[in-house]
Specification:
Helix content is 31%, strand content 32%. It has 209 residues and is of the alpha/beta class. The radius of gyration is 18 Å and the shape is globular.
Length: 209
Amino acid sequence: MSTVHVIRHPLVQHKLTMIRDKNTGPKDFRELVDEVSLLMAYEVTRDMPLEEVEVETPICTTKGHTISGKKVGIIPILRAGLGMVNGILRLIPTAKVGHIGLYRDPETLEPVEYYCKLPADVEERELIVIDPMLATGGSAAAAIHYLKKRGAHSIKLMCLLAAPEGIERIQREHPDVEIFTAAVDERLNEHGYIIPGLGDAGDRLFGTK
């Protein structure tokens, strides 16, 4: 089963409460999502491997550590995932960014890929799939499936909020993918929205309805 990491850092929880507030406008909403994404990225990258190197300080030569191993790829699910990209890039500026666009077929209700642009070496990268909401889990599960079809095998999923239904689907379909979230909410309503949630993340990010 996928491991679920709930990031309970006080700054993350404080900013998440502000994100939930219906009175938070698009400008502040975008800034808060950006800030929380940066803070969460510290936890998502906690297990990145290190190697020892020698460095010369202004005083003497000493030993230090630098990140070794695979490179990082950030994969936002369009469109709401775009709001989380810059925060992570501030922490990992050398990461490459791919994009996956999905829409829900009105008859089958299943996700359909309409856009996919990935780094050429996706199979060599540690990938972080990002989407603010893990609701039914359909879009995230589909995005991970498409990445695996293209050779990716090291994937983590990062979201602001998760519903139990979405977690269960990822655990069932992709038990090798770790889930990082700031909160696990109560449930989905009859329209597939997370309760208590934060509304439609894409609309709140971009001021649309």
